[in-house]
């Protein structure tokens, strides 16, 4: 492996100072970063360890909101009764992610910033990857692109965003709390990840050295009737071909508010407001779900290997909405 220093700051202020160096990167649970270091996909000069720096509290507030410290482990969040009762879509998305061992190490902050699973990005033997080597081309465009994105793509990159729980958090309008060399700020999670455009190597709006300190989920009546459905090639330890995070607030048989986001199909966690608009105000029934799901593929661009995702997206949404309501 290439040489780097490992810094262990005792507090957030020291971490921010060390992380501000242009060649520094953070490591939290290390479940993604260690793979990238081993394969020399990432080659920081300084690695700044975050253990003991950020809090891992899981706090349900009296107003119904939820705060997750950035160091909270995926497994602890999934097992928290406040989360599984009031925000089942979050607990389900986490439990369908990775494996028990990975979830015991991995943090919510690191999950949101994990890198794509595009195999060409993760193979140092492949030269053509605009995300890894800007300007080098994209091997996936005419290569094996069965798992790649159909929404938010560009001619420079079609890599899918890999996080499951980010999809649930986008559906729930969560906010990411960020600390940086120039102070603190809050970023709506839907704005955290960038679409590739002509700069696919820039994946988020975070500046060098900025830290995610917490994720805050606002209260919403729909969250209690929420669900995460993940469709994948194997039943566990696999990333999504398609997934849907849905939440419904239903009153007297009519949908007052719907939330729908998808994973496995976008270059970022993908909120489907056109589907939500087609659900809102309509009867809470299967025909409504089917009609609304037709809007999911608007704007989609497929490649040779991933055309099957268009039909699968619609079916995933309908099934997730049915399951959220407990229908057969
Ligand atoms: C075999 C395997 C299968 C997996 N399957 C799934 C899956 O099905 N679904 C899914 O969603 N994920 C999956 N993952 C990804 C896994 O969830 C992530 O690796 C994990 O969540 C990353 O968290 P971490 O704390 O280990 O982050 P690290 O690996 O330590 O860091 C990841 C990135 O986040 C940055 N970072 C970490 N914390 C912060 C912070 N607080 N502020 C700023 N930057 C930070 C690091 O610099 C790095 O760039 C899988 C991983 C593996 C290894
Ligand atoms: S899809 Fe993106 S990550 Fe994958 S090879 Fe192309 S540029 Fe690289």
Describe, in short, the structure shown.
The chain has 328 residues and is an alpha+beta fold. The chain is 27% helix and 20% strand. A five-stranded antiparallel beta sheet has the order 4-5-8-6-7.
Explain what the structure shows.
By secondary structure, the protein is α+β, with helices and mostly antiparallel strands. Among the domains are: 5-49, Uridine Diphospho-n-acetylenolpyruvylglucosamine Reductase, domain 2, CATH 3.30.43; 222-324, CO dehydrogenase flavoprotein, C-terminal domain (Enolase-like, domain 1), CATH 3.30.390. Helices cover 27% and strands 20% of the residues. The chain has helices spanning 12-19, 33-38, 74-79, 81-86, 88-95, 100-105, 108-112, 165-171, 189-192, 273-279, 286-293, 308-324; strands at 5-7, 24-27, 46-49, 58-60, 66-69, 175-180, 183-188, 211-217, 226-231, 242-251, 254-263, 270-271. Strands 4-5-8-6-7 form a 5-stranded antiparallel β-sheet. Strands 9-10-11-12 form a 4-stranded antiparallel β-sheet, sandwiched between helices. Helix 5 packs antiparallel against helix 8 and helix 11 (286-293) runs antiparallel to helix 12 (308-324). Bound molecules: flavin-adenine dinucleotide and iron/sulfur cluster. Residues 116, 118, 120-121, 129-131, 138-140, 157-159, 200 line the site of iron/sulfur cluster.
Task: State the CATH topology of the domain at 222-324.
Answer: Enolase-like, domain 1
Radius of gyration: 19 Å
Note the run of SSEs as H and E: EHEHEEEHHHHHHEEHEEEEEHHH
- Strand order of the main beta sheet, please? 4-5-8-6-7
How large a portion of the residues is in β-strands, by DSSP E?
A: 15-25%
What is the 3D shape? globular
* Biggest sheet features: 5 strands, antiparallel
What ligand molecules are bound, each kind once?
flavin-adenine dinucleotide, iron/sulfur cluster
Count of separate DSSP helical elements: 12
CATH class label of the domain at 222-324 = Alpha Beta
Look at the structure and name the CATH superfamily of the domain at 222-324: CO dehydrogenase flavoprotein, C-terminal domain
Topology, number of strands: 12
């Amino acid at each position: 492996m290439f040489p780097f220093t490992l810094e262990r700051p005792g507090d957030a202020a020291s971490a921010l100072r060390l992380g501000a160096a242009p060649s520094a990167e953070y490591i939290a649970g290390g479940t993604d970063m260690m793979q990238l270091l081993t394969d020399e996909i990432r080659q920081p000069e300084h690695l700044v360890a975050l253990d003991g720096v950020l809090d891992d509290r899981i706090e349900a507030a009296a107003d119904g909101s939820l705060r997750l410290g950035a160091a909270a482990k995926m497994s602890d969040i999934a097992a928290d009764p406040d989360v599984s009762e009031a925000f089942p879509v979050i607990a389900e998305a986490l439990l369908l992610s990775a494996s028990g061992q990975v979830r015991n190490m991995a943090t919510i902050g690191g999950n949101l910033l994990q890198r794509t699973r595009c195999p060409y990005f993760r193979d140092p033997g492949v030269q053509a990857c605009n995300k890894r080597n800007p300007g080098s081309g994209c091997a996936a465009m005419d290569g094996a692109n069965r798992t790649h994105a159909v929404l938010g793509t560009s001619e420079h990159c079609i890599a899918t965003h890999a996080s499951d729980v980010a999809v649930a958090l986008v559906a729930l309008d969560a906010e990411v709390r960020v600390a940086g060399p120039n102070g603190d700020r809050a970023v709506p999670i839907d704005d955290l990840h960038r679409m590739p455009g002509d700069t696919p190597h820039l994946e988020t709006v975070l500046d060098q050295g900025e830290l995610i300190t917490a994720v805050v989920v606002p209260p919403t009546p729909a969250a209690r009737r929420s669900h995460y459905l993940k469709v994948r090639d194997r039943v566990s330890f696999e990333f999504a071909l398609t997934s849907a995070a849905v939440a419904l607030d239903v009153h007297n048989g009519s949908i007052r508010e719907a939330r729908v986001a998808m994973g496995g199909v976008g270059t970022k966690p993908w909120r489907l407001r056109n589907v939500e608009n087609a659900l809102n105000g309509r009867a809470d029934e299967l025909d409504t779900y089917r009609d609304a799901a037709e809007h999911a593929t608007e704007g989609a661009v497929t490649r040779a290997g991933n055309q099957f995702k268009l039909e699968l997206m619609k079916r995933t949404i309908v099934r997730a909405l049915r399951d959220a309501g407990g229908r057969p």
